[in-house]
Design a protein that fits this description.
By secondary structure, this protein is α+β, with helices and mostly antiparallel strands. It has 22 helices and eight strands.
Length: 522
Amino acid sequence: PDLLRLSRDELMRHEAAGITTDNFPKTVRLGGVDCTAAYLHSPGDARDGITVTVPLFVLNQVSEERAEWLVPGMLKDKIQALLKSLPQRPRSRFVPLPESAARLTELFTAPERWAEQTKHSGLIDVLLKQVRDETSLDVKRADFKLDMLSPHLFMNFRITDEHGRQLGQGRNLGALKAELGAKARGAFQALASLKIAGSAEPEKDLPQHSGKHQQGQAPAAPKTAADSAAAQKSSGAAAADARYKEWSFGELPELMEIKKGSQTLIGFPALIDHGEAVGIEVFDEPEVAAARHRLGLRRLFALQIRDALKYLEKNIPELQKMAVAYMPLGTQEELRAQIIDVAIDRAFLQEPLPANEADFKQRVQDGRGRLTLIANEVARMSALILTEYAAAARKIKDTKNAPEATRDAGEQLNKLMPKNFIAVAPWTQLGHYARYLKAITTRLDKYRADPARDASKLKELQPQEQRYWRLVAERKGQVDARMQEYRWMLEELRVSFFAQELRTPYPVSAKRLDKVWSQLQQ
């Protein structure tokens, strides 16, 4: 009579035992927000694997590193595929691959490791360290051939607006950010402004600075920029439209928590340059906020020293002479503005940047006295650079029968000397610019004596340069400290190859660049 009776355990397929909400959660936390996750097993389908629905306003805060981890239930297959993509020597240390992948998955998904790893490191970096530790081999990050992995082993992102409408979909997070990043920033800032405005209270109720005020002083300013924005709202001005000509908005925090329902987003406040005043905006990316904040802070300093700047504008030494050499790049006004901007940065914007009114006023007082001296130094350096620039440009134009050398020198000159070279070049490197430019002239002076040597050195140099500029393009112009180091080593390598008599500040060779490049790839 019990022949057709089956227990619950017998009904459940053994293969489905691992399909739990722990291994395949209904939501994945990305950028501080719990995003809905959906799963599909359908090879070839655009949604095969895991698809995470990401609200537009959080897109720029989603990290590639967290996305690499997928979810615990998919990690073993991804680790196995990554191990399989390694070169034969390190791969052989993990045979049989399924057992090694299962062991590493258990290690990485241990409760004490999972949360910390997924928050601060990517799967590739963690696995790379583990492979190196277990094999003692110098495995590189590039040894993992991601193009060999099946598409379902990469997270699929579905970007939606506030009404749930799909704006974009794909597994390439960088491409989605490039396409929708500006819209995402606008959506985030709208949310941040709404939350700040919504927290507005009457000014009399705003929290005050602790401590006693000196006799005759006005009441203390609001504690934070958010409080100040709220006060502006209560008096009839929208927080996003508030403008300041002095530091009257309280302390500017590094971070700002923005609530949306039960979720908490992190915003990064920054001063924004509006010409005759500054405003405050909250950004979703710390790098963008930092860059905009420096420009806003520069404007706020400039507003405090108008008289000094008027004097500087009329008294930059040899400005007209410099402007003649600068003509192929831009106007005298653009040159003057760069010199003054860099002088303000050097006089007032040294780290750590002021974060409150007292520190700001002290910095104004400290920098005002040295501004003219610094501006003269920036002008002197600019004049020297522009003199060598004019000489190098003439030499390239006048050199005949050296097409490869002049083409290469022309490309070097264009990369070194954009219109805003004074503003964008790191200050420490600007001091070497005249030597880099003189090296161009020296190279072409010597070309006729030994064209074969020039061609040989150029052939050795080209792969070093090509891989760097390819990486810059891949990273959409985002250059970190290691890339900066490599970029300026390229210029020093040029000096050592083509104008050795000008000397380099440190030993440089193609092998040394290879070593830095190797570190860059790790």
